[in-house]
Amino acid sequence: MKRIQTISYKLLIVLLVGTVITSCDNILEDVRQDPNNVTSIDDAPLFATAVRSLFNGTLDEGSYRFAGQHAHYYVAGSTARLPDQYTDGFDGAYNGIYNSMYSGVIKHIEEVLYITSQPETENPVRYAMANIIGVMGYARITDGFGEIPYTEGGKGKTGDILTPKYDTQEFIYNDLIQRLTASINVLTNANPAMGYPKSDPIFSNDLSKWIRLANSVKLRLGMRLRYVDNNLSRQVVSQCLTAPLMEDNSHNASMIETEGDGNAWYNRRIGYPSIKMSTMLVDQLKNTSDPRLSIFVAQDANGNYTGQTNGLNDEAFGKSDLASKSDMGLALSSQDSKLYVMTASEVYFLKAEAALIYNTDPTEANDLYRKGIETSFKQWDIDSGSITTFLSSSTGTLSGSTTEQESQIGTQMWLALTPNYYEGWCNIRRTGYPVIAERTDSDLERGVTNGIMPSRFLYSSFELSTNGTNVSEAISRQGANKIDTPVWWDKN
């Protein structure tokens, strides 16, 4: 009996020791695993963040302080007005514009592209959708600065590249177009379940609209090549014109900002420094009896629409009574006003220009021009009677020489791009329309550009100090780091 108890006791010891060893192994395994290390990342929130950042880019300082004033949409008060005088010295602003797009859009989209291309998490549909957002983000940066880090851009985390090389804008544009083409091919006949059913703030995972967006952005980029690479421009545009494009306002790439105070133009309208709409914009709308006047421009205290002249020197500005001028319209500057990155009306004007120049078909160009106006009016809920009246006016029909018709198309494009003021500035730089006249009046500040509208943003001192070799190479190819050095495609 005693021997049996001894054996049982020894067996119990062995079992206990085995359990302890196994438990220790499990504990050690738990210790070896860093509880703070994320083993898998959900790319959906990253995608949604990148999309939201792209739209908020239309509200950043690149639009607010620079593009919106350079393109004569409005005039800002206080120190925010300084870029309107074509002065320089905005190193912090340039650095912020540059970094916000990389940190907001590019960083997140590069992570999505990495995740959706790995064998264990591969998803070609999500990759294609992210690619379209990435193209639009990179296009915005390169259109502002010229040469930028592209092939090595945004790879600080996924590729451990802290001093990325700068690529030529010619290379970037060619690659952006190829990326859009690849994305379109993937999304055609793709399974929507593989997209972002719950994380798409633009089109709620409607892949047909994503295809239209990609083709429309490709058309924009193709037309931007018109003066610098006409053969490629014609080729790209020809491809786009046979593909699905944005055709009505249900296809618009728009979003409502719901965080914080909502649309940033709201605080800029009610806060300080104030924004007053440009005399050039107000006069264009008034002189053509354009019903968008009451949409884009608020009435002043006397019930009139009064613009502020762009570019006044300090003495003339002090006498101009800025406070009495018209604010931005409520439709553009309410907390829930929509943000836009691409619209059907822009597409019609791009097609009208292509028909006029590439197809040499004035009749088709006129039809598309009128359709662009109509679509823009409908975007802002203008009633059908007012649309018919406007289209019956001289402004509603293309006329005159080819140059005069191009001016009409460019002017209506400028209006239709509201409130995407950054794209308005880009289109003026490309086409030359509407004409932003050289400043010769004694009341106007000529700045560092001798009175010519600025052509680009500057590489900041921070970028020059932290990535100096690569920035210097870009400057040597592109031209002096000045705001009147045009980017590659700007030949007007």
SSE order, one letter for each helix or strand: HHHEHHHHHEHEHHHHEHHHHHHH
Instruction: Give the biggest beta sheet.
Output: 2 strands, antiparallel
Globally, the shape reads globular
What's the N-to-C terminus distance?
107 Å
Strand segment tally: 4
Organism: Snuella sedimenti
Keywords: Lipoprotein
InterPro entries: SusD-like_2, TPR-like_helical_dom_sf
Protein name: SusD/RagB family nutrient-binding outer membrane lipoprotein
If you had to describe this structure to a student in words, what would you say it looks like?
By secondary structure, this protein is mainly alpha-helical. Helix content is 53%, strand content 3%. The chain has a two-stranded antiparallel ribbon. A two-stranded antiparallel sheet has the order 2-4. The radius of gyration is 27 Å and the shape is globular. The relative contact order is 0.13. Residues 1-39 have low confidence and may be disordered. This is SusD/RagB family nutrient-binding outer membrane lipoprotein.
